[in-house]
User: Fold this.
Amino acid sequence: MKICIDLPDDVFVRLEAIAAAVGHPKEDVVLGSLQRYLTAHSTSSLAHPHAQHPPICRKKKTGVVRTTAPICELVNGLLYGDTTVGSVLKSGTFGLGTLNYLDGELVVLDGVAYQQTADGKSNPVQTDAKTPWMMVTDFDEDEAEKIELPNRLDHAALCDTLLQATKKNSFVAIKVVGEFEVLNLRAVRKQSGNRPLIEVSHEQALFNFGPGEIGSLVGFWSPEYVGYGLNVPGFHLHYISEDLKRGGHVLNAVLTRGVAYLQPIYHLLQDIPASEEFQKAELMARDTVAELKSSEGNHHNN
Ligand SMILES: [Zn+2]
Assistant:
């Protein structure tokens, strides 16, 4: 016997829009969304308020993380890339980034890329949109290490808890699903031309969500040694709400309750832009470590 439930019309409209934007069959989007919904709402995921110590399961998966440019490209104000979001999505279902000329933040979740703009909203991105920098991997909650987080973690405690469970000298894909008391987020604003990241970050849009905010932190831990130009060292997390309609780059998060999924990654696929602009740039002329810390937030303790 088949049991069915009717979905509201607005869900169908949104489903069609997302399926069209990403070029995937609607059935794939439905299955992915349903799986994500069930995971987020399962009582076993969120109902362990006193669990102090991870992990309830530990499985390892050797994956690949792809980044479309060294981060020093953005630090040095080269904000244009020829890579399409659609081509990056072939390398991973999960990640983050930005669009050309820093037109907002990007989150990739369940194979769909969402643009997060200065008004705090998230919307699916057209796959032909271009990006100067994205970072993606294939992420599988079932394969990841699952950690029941203690209740009421401020940002420092959350980072410390994640760091204790992180393989700090590898890349680690991180997803934190839960309820947030405070989320201080930012989105960069679209620039009219090339400009160093630190200057753009001074004019970023800041916005706050919570209390009672339900959603996911999506991102990575990157090892310290990549900080001289390859990537953002430490935690780099973006937020997307459960309804996928709002989010941004995380500056501060206070978790009410939730679970984390950590997936260590031991292989890096690093694109190097072939453009003349990139090849002629004096990429070590700026203090990348200091400027990343200032423009991206302190990803270790704040
Ligand atoms: Zn970011």
